[in-house]
Design goal:
By secondary structure, the protein is an all-alpha fold. It has a single domain, classed as Tetracycline Repressor, domain 2 (Orthogonal Bundle). It has ten helices and no strands. One of its GO terms (molecular function) is DNA binding.
């Protein structure tokens, strides 16, 4: 029998915290059950599988990161919005490395489908990151497919820099922060003069 008070939200939050402490690859149902001092079966009455649990951590992380970015870019445009967006993106990845890593795991579309007894999804969630990104990019006035290409470039640059930084791969004595700032300035210049068509 599941321990009283155990909910999907509590389980996902604990899994997110565990991911930040130990890495998303070390989040298992058994490890989480030990944290709650229950049997694995107690958790399976709230989640379908380990993949479902990790998917939920990724979705929560996406919502958290989008909210942090939205707060950072509010009232800003152009270069200021890009820098605020990028800094919030990087800060979230540094503050929550396990959650950020969970966001990079491809989701099996069969797992992503909710059961009938799952609570309905908030339509505002999940699209928040897309909305914030679109708002930040508005000043650059890029139509699709250029907008899609530019967003992919930004995400690739941010993720690559963050991953290399987290792994200690920047051994040169130049300040990593100075390189980050220069990269953002270069991205702003590129977006401002994006080759159309």
């Amino acid at each position: 029998m599941a321990r009283a008070g155990l909910t999907v939200d509590k389980i996902v939050q604990a899994a997110a915290e565990m991911a930040d402490e130990r890495g998303i690859e070390n989040v298992t149902v058994s490890a989480l059950a030990r944290r709650f001092d229950v049997r694995d079966a107690s958790l399976y009455s709230h989640i379908r599988s380990l993949a479902d649990l990790r998917r939920r951590v990724a979705l929560q992380a996406g919502d958290e990161q989008a909210e942090r970015i939205a707060d950072a870019v509010a009232g800003r445009a152009g270069r200021d919005a890009l820098v605020a967006f990028a800094d919030a993106y990087r800060d979230y990845a540094r503050d929550h490395p396990g959650r950020y890593a969970a966001m990079q795991i491809p989701v099996d579309p069969n797992i992503a489908k909710d059961k009938a007894d799952d609570p309905p999804k908030d339509p505002a969630k999940g699209s928040r990151g897309v909305e914030v990104t679109a708002a930040m990019m508005r000043a650059y006035d890029l139509p699709d497919p250029d907008l899609t290409d530019a967003v992919r470039l930004l995400r690739s640059t941010f993720h690559g820099f963050i991953s290399l930084e987290a792994n200690g791969a920047f051994g040169h004595p130049r300040s990593v922060q100075a390189s980050w700032e220069k990269a953002l300035e270069a991205l702003h210049q590129l977006l401002s003069t994006w080759p159309k068509g």
